[in-house]
Design goal:
Strand content: 15-25%
Mean pLDDT: 81
Strand order of the largest sheet: 1-2
Largest sheet: 2 strands, antiparallel
Helix content: 55-70%
Oligomer: single chain
Distance between the termini: 48 Å
Number of helices: 3
Number of strands: 2
Structural class: alpha+beta
Radius of gyration: 18 Å
Order of helices and strands: HEEHH
Length: 85
């Protein structure tokens, strides 16, 4: 009985998840940009940290940023992992 209910919930949940990723992909192209930040003086030394922000705005601003915050943080983590490897 419970397995049938779970099977009924799987397609709608998968659809919502796919729609979320697709909408983030569109927003990533049109709304967001990757900003490079160097912790050293004049950007010449230190570790590089990339973060994602709305175009011409600081990170954390706008409803779009808050809506996609989990996937933005995952993408930032992946980028920073490969840059500091």
């Amino acid at each position: 009985m419970i397995m049938q209910e779970v099977k009924k919930l799987f397609p709608p949940l998968l659809s919502v998840l796919c729609l979320y990723f697709l909408s983030y992909a569109c927003a990533r192209v049109a709304v967001f940009q990757t900003v490079e930040h160097y912790s050293g003086a004049d950007g010449k030394s230190g570790l590089r940290q990339d973060y994602i922000a709305k175009r011409d705005r600081p990170a954390g601003e706008g409803w779009e940023y808050h809506m996609f915050l989990p996937i933005i943080k995952a993408e930032e983590g992946i980028i920073n992992y490969f840059h500091h490897r």
